[in-house]
Amino acid sequence: MITVYSEDHRLHHPPHELLDGSLITPYEDPQRVEIILDAILRQEIGPVIQPQALLDLDDIRRVHHTDYLSYLEHAYTSWVEAGGNPKAVLPSALAVRWMNRGTKNPLALPGYYSFDTSTPIVAGTYQAALASAHVALTSAEMILQREPSVYALCRPPGHHAGVNLCGGYCFLNNAAIAAEYLIHKGGLSRIAILDIDIHHGNGTQQIFYERSDVLYMSIHIDPQIEYPYFSGFADEEGAGEGFGYNRNIPLPQNADQTLFLSALDQALDDVRKHEPDCVIVSAGFDTYIEDPIGGFTLTPDAYPIMGTRIAQLQLPTLFVQEGGYAIQALGTNVCGFLSGFQNNRSVA
Ligand code: Q9C
Ligand code: ZN
């Protein structure tokens, strides 16, 4: 399987995040994808290529508002000019419920465009986020060129990013951007996004909530106990035309492989019923037992099984890297997953 990777992810390397009231070293570290890349090369998963052609911002504007993109582009410089801490942009006050008037104040803007305090912006963040989206777009283009499956090694991740909101280490929603590309450039009529990161992909859910062409299926830790707390409940089923095309499967803390795999089987049944032209897997590995911010108890042997079951769909499949923070095990878990998939396909 081809992997698409860009070294520009390194431009996003914030010094801290604010978690549960403490300023800590970020879990979302550049080493994550370096370790995955290394394992992919050593285990000969397949060729690794760079993003192709020129990035067209219109492909990103199909998902994100222009004012949000221009905020991301200028956030760091205007923040520093206005006297913000040059180490990183982080909001102090969030625009919530009825307090959501717009602002031009560079020290206040981060609170308008963020929904948490663990998604800092540094000088290279926008370029890194664009490169990550470019990785997803290149991978989507290869699917259109009849590549049966592609792995987009995206960093920063994307599934928490909404149309005009960053959060959960995410700035641009790579999976959503790929889905829109497949529909608009490739003329695909139906897509299924299967999100197996431990966290609910609130951004992806928001983007497609009223759409029936893109099915969003998410298996994740119960939002009553874990991040993102305010979204991801089973009764969020989509709205308007999109009713029935959003499905959340929350699982309890400490969910194990048996529970996870039975949720995956349910999700795969729904994916089959949707009859998609392509499946996009939001592939997070923070379900692993040793993950420092996880909460499930999956062991490395779970990932090849997950790959195998997804392979049985026998559909064009685009894997988009999301979370996973147990750095020592990430390479093994990702390669196990991709190999499990590859070894069980009739088409490459
Ligand atoms: N107690 C992704 O996996 N903080 N984002 C969680 C845990 C934010 C995770 C707090 C986690 C974001 C892509
Ligand atoms: Zn996650």
With helices defined by DSSP (H or I, 4 residues minimum), what is the helix count?
10
Poorly predicted runs of 5 or more residues: none
Would you count the extended β strands for me? 10
Radius of gyration from the CA trace? 19 Å
- Which kinds of small molecule does this entry bind, naming each only once? N-{4-[(3-aminopropyl)amino]butyl}acetamide, zinc ion
Largest sheet, in brief, is: 8 strands, parallel
Beta-strand percentage range: 5-15%
Shape: globular
Calculate the mean pLDDT score and round it.
98
Give the H and E element order: EEEHEHHHHEHEHEEHEHEH
Q: Report the end-to-end length measured between terminal Cα atoms.
A: 8 Å
Describe the structure.
- By secondary structure, this protein is of the alpha/beta class.
- The protein contains 10 helices and 10 strands.
- The strands form 2 sheets. An 8-stranded parallel β-sheet has the order 4-1-5-10-9-6-7-8, with helices on both faces. Strands 2-3 form a two-stranded antiparallel sheet.
- Strand 2 (17-19) and strand 3 (22-24) form a beta hairpin.
- It is globular.
- The N and C termini lie close together (8 Å).
- The mean pLDDT is 98.
- Zinc ion (ZN) binds at residues 197-199, 284, 286, 322-323.
